[in-house]
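Q: Convert this sequence to structure tokens.
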Amino acid sequence: MALNLSHIPRELCTVLIAMLPIFELRGAIPYALGRGMSWQQAYFFSVVGNSVPVIPLLLFLEPVSNLLSRRYPHCQRFFGWLFARTRRRGRLVERYEALGLILFVAIPLPVTGAWTGTVATFLFGVRFKYALPAIILGILLAGTVVTLASLGVITLWTL
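A:
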């Protein structure tokens, strides 16, 4: 069964896709361009959507993960897995803190991005006042890279 999103405004779909973990703006920008949006619109709505979950994640990840881990053993296993994976991938953040966080979020690859960046912020103790602007700057840079790659201006990798 295929999911038909044609009745939902493309701007809203772009924002919603960009809000999702894993897809984030890496999926939203190509989607928006494919739906006929200009690169400026695609970039704007993707950056907005990718930024929406950042503040709630920064504020509530620790208390929610603690609460769920205490109440539900499968949540404890999930958060344990997520935090271990982020620790392995988050060496930039651990070493360079806010600057590393910018680079970590800006790299447009799977398991990097705003969602994983907020987890890394929590794990490595980057303070909110440094984490928020670093993650937003990383989102802006990632959006630029993904937009340029989607338009064929740059090539991210060759086979």
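The chain has a mean pLDDT of 91.
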